[in-house]
Amino acid sequence: MLGSEKEMDEPERPLRKLAETLSRRGQTIYGRQTIVELCAKTGVSLTNTIDMGDPDTDESLQKFLVGYSKLTPAAKLTILILSKQYGVSLPEDLLGKKKGLKDRLESLQDFLPWST
Predict the structure, then answer these.
(1) How many CB atoms lie within 10 A of CB 104?
(2) For residues 18 and 63, is the Cβ–Cβ distance under 8 A?
(3) CB 27 within 8 A of CB 49
(4) Amino acid 4: pLDDT
(5) How far is CA 113 from CA 104, 108, 116, in A?
(6) What is the mean pLDDT of each run of 10 residues along the chain (116 residues)?
(7) Which of 9, 53, 63, 66 is most buried, with most CB under 10 Å away?
(8) DSSP assignment of 38-76, as one string?
(9) How many other CB atoms are found less than 10 A from the CB of residue 42?
(10) Does pTM surpass 0.85?
(11) Domain boundaries, the chain
C-alpha cells in the first residue's frame, strides 16, 4: 500500500508497518470509507486513494493509531497486541492513565457489601 517508489526504497519502520496492518484490517472490518476518512483526518497516506506526497511522519502515524483506537474497544485491544509484536511504543493518549490500587479500590467501594 505504499504510494511511491521512494517509500518502497526506505527501510520498513515498525510504526508504519503497524499502521499499514491496521489500515488493511480496518478496511475489512470498519469499511474503506471509515479508514480513508481517518487517514485524511490524521494526515496519513496508508490507502491508495490519498497521496500526501512525503512519507508519513511518526507524529501523523501515532495520530492514526489514536484515531483507530477510538473506533471500538476491539480496535484498541488490537493495537495493544500488535504494538507488542512490532515493538512499537504507543502514545500516552492511547494508553490513558493507569489506575493505582487506591483508585481501583475507590471505584469498587460502591459495590462492596460492607461499605455504606
Answers:
(1) 10
(2) no
(3) no
(4) 43
(5) 16, 10, 8
(6) 44 86 95 94 73 72 93 92 91 70 62 58
(7) 63
(8) HHHHHT---STT---SSPPPHHHHHHHHHHHHTT-HHHH
(9) 20
(10) no
(11) 5-111
